[in-house]
C-alpha cells in the first residue's frame, strides 16, 4: 500500500511513461518505439553557408511519363515515395529506384533520363534541393554535350 509520500512519485512516473509514449492511458499497454533509419547520407559540395536555402519538390510522373534532359545547378537528393522511376546521370549507368530508395545528383550533372519505369502506374518522388544562390531549380539541356546554349 502506498502512503502519501510515495503517491506523487508513482503518479509522476506513470505520467512520464504516458508522455514518453511508452504507455497509453486507455490501454496501459506498451507501444513499440518509433523506427528510424538513415535513408541517405552523402557529402555535399562546398556551398556558401551564408546563403543556403532548402527546397523540397514533389514530382509525379503519370504512367509512361518522363522529363527532357536537364541539369540542376544545386545538389539534389531524391527520395522515391511510390511507383518506380528510371534515372540516369551522364557517365553513370541507368538505374531504377523504388519506394524508400534515394539518389543524389551533384550540381550541374546532366540528368539524361528521368522517367516513370511503369506504363500502368504513376510514380512519385521528393527532390530536396540545397542551394546557396538564387537560381532556377532545373535548367534544360539543349545539346549533345549537356551544355546550356
Give the secondary structure arrangement, pairings included:
Elements: H1 7-19, E1 53-61, E2 70-71, E3 76-82, E4 85-89, E5 95-97, E6 102-105, E7 110-116, E8 123-131, E9 139-140
Antiparallel strand pairs: 1-8, 2-7, 2-9, 3-6, 3-8, 4-5, 4-7
Low-confidence stretches: 1-16
- For the secondary structure, the number of strands is 9
Gross morphology is globular
Helix proportion range: under 10%
Order of helices and strands: HEEEEEEEEE
Q: Can you list the strand order of the major beta sheet?
A: 5-4-7-2-9
CATH topology of the largest domain: Jelly Rolls
Alpha-carbon distance between the two ends: 83 Å
- The appropriate CATH architecture of the largest domain is Sandwich
Write up this protein:
It is a single chain. This protein has one helix at residues 7-19, and strands at residues 53-61, 70-71, 76-82, 85-89, 95-97, 102-105, 110-116, 123-131, 139-140. By secondary structure, it is mostly beta strands. The chain folds into 2 domains: 1-36, no CATH class; 49-140, Jelly Rolls (Sandwich). The radius of gyration is 24 Å and the shape is globular. The model is unreliable at 1-16 (pLDDT under 50).
Key attributes of the depicted protein:
149 residues; mainly beta; Jelly Rolls; five-stranded antiparallel beta sheet; four-stranded antiparallel beta sheet; 1 helix; 9 strands
Sum this structure up briefly.
This protein is mainly beta and 149 residues long. It has one helix and nine strands.
Amino acid at each position: 500500500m502506498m502512503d502519501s509520500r510515495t503517491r506523487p512519485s508513482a503518479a509522476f512516473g506513470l505520467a512520464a511513461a504516458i508522455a514518453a509514449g511508452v504507455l497509453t492511458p486507455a490501454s496501459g499497454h506498451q507501444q513499440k518505439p518509433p523506427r528510424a533509419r538513415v535513408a541517405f547520407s552523402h557529402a555535399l559540395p562546398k556551398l556558401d553557408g551564408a546563403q543556403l536555402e532548402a527546397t523540397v519538390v514533389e514530382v509525379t510522373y503519370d504512367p509512361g511519363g518522363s522529363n527532357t534532359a536537364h541539369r540542376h545547378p544545386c545538389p539534389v537528393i531524391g527520395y522515391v515515395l511510390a511507383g518506380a522511376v528510371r534515372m540516369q546521370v551522364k557517365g553513370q549507368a541507368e538505374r531504377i529506384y523504388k519506394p524508400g530508395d534515394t539518389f543524389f545528383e551533384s550540381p550541374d550533372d546532366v540528368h539524361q533520363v528521368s522517367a516513370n519505369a511503369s506504363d500502368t502506374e504513376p510514380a512519385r518522388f521528393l527532390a530536396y534541393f540545397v542551394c546557396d544562390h538564387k537560381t532556377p531549380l532545373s535548367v534544360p539541356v539543349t545539346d549533345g554535350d549537356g551544355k546550356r546554349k
